[in-house]
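Z., the sequence and structure:
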Amino acid sequence: MSNRDLAKNLIDQIPEGKLFYIIPYLQGAAIPDETPNPETLEAIAELDNGGGERFTDSTEDFLNMLLEG
Protein backbone atom coordinates (compact mmCIF):
# COMPACT_ATOMS: atom_id res chain seq x y z
CA MET A 1 0.00 0.00 0.00
CA SER A 2 1.37 3.40 -0.98
CA ASN A 3 1.58 6.33 1.42
CA ARG A 4 -1.20 8.03 -0.56
CA ASP A 5 -3.46 4.99 -0.19
CA LEU A 6 -2.70 4.80 3.54
CA ALA A 7 -3.49 8.51 3.97
CA LYS A 8 -6.79 8.10 2.11
CA ASN A 9 -7.71 5.11 4.28
CA LEU A 10 -6.92 7.04 7.45
CA ILE A 11 -8.93 10.05 6.29
CA ASP A 12 -11.90 7.76 5.69
CA GLN A 13 -11.64 6.65 9.34
CA ILE A 14 -11.63 10.19 10.80
CA PRO A 15 -15.01 11.27 12.18
CA GLU A 16 -16.59 14.17 10.27
CA GLY A 17 -16.31 16.49 13.29
CA LYS A 18 -12.53 16.06 13.43
CA LEU A 19 -11.95 16.67 9.72
CA PHE A 20 -12.33 20.37 10.45
CA TYR A 21 -8.92 20.20 12.19
CA ILE A 22 -7.24 18.10 9.50
CA ILE A 23 -8.24 20.08 6.41
CA PRO A 24 -6.02 23.17 7.03
CA TYR A 25 -3.00 20.92 7.47
CA LEU A 26 -3.77 19.07 4.25
CA GLN A 27 -4.27 22.35 2.41
CA GLY A 28 -0.88 23.58 3.58
CA ALA A 29 0.79 20.32 2.60
CA ALA A 30 -0.81 20.47 -0.86
CA ILE A 31 0.88 23.77 -1.73
CA PRO A 32 3.84 23.01 -3.98
CA ASP A 33 7.28 24.02 -2.79
CA GLU A 34 8.36 27.22 -4.49
CA THR A 35 11.89 28.07 -5.48
CA PRO A 36 12.73 31.74 -4.94
CA ASN A 37 13.35 33.71 -8.13
CA PRO A 38 16.91 34.80 -8.99
CA GLU A 39 16.36 38.30 -7.56
CA THR A 40 15.30 36.88 -4.20
CA LEU A 41 18.18 34.39 -4.16
CA GLU A 42 20.58 37.28 -4.80
CA ALA A 43 19.08 39.28 -1.92
CA ILE A 44 19.37 36.29 0.42
CA ALA A 45 23.00 35.78 -0.56
CA GLU A 46 23.68 39.48 0.02
CA LEU A 47 22.28 39.26 3.55
CA ASP A 48 24.19 36.04 4.23
CA ASN A 49 27.41 37.83 3.27
CA GLY A 50 26.77 40.72 5.66
CA GLY A 51 25.38 43.16 3.11
CA GLY A 52 21.91 44.42 2.47
CA GLU A 53 19.70 46.43 4.73
CA ARG A 54 18.25 45.06 7.94
CA PHE A 55 15.29 46.61 9.71
CA THR A 56 15.19 46.40 13.48
CA ASP A 57 12.72 49.22 14.08
CA SER A 58 8.98 48.94 14.20
CA THR A 59 6.79 48.17 11.23
CA GLU A 60 5.66 51.79 11.35
CA ASP A 61 9.26 53.01 10.98
CA PHE A 62 9.80 50.63 8.06
CA LEU A 63 6.64 51.80 6.29
CA ASN A 64 7.59 55.45 6.84
CA MET A 65 11.00 54.76 5.31
CA LEU A 66 9.31 53.24 2.24
CA LEU A 67 6.99 56.21 1.88
CA GLU A 68 9.84 58.72 2.17
CA GLY A 69 12.05 57.28 -0.43
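Residues 16-30 form the longest helix (15 residues). The two ends are 59 Å apart (CA to CA).

Let me know what you think.
H.
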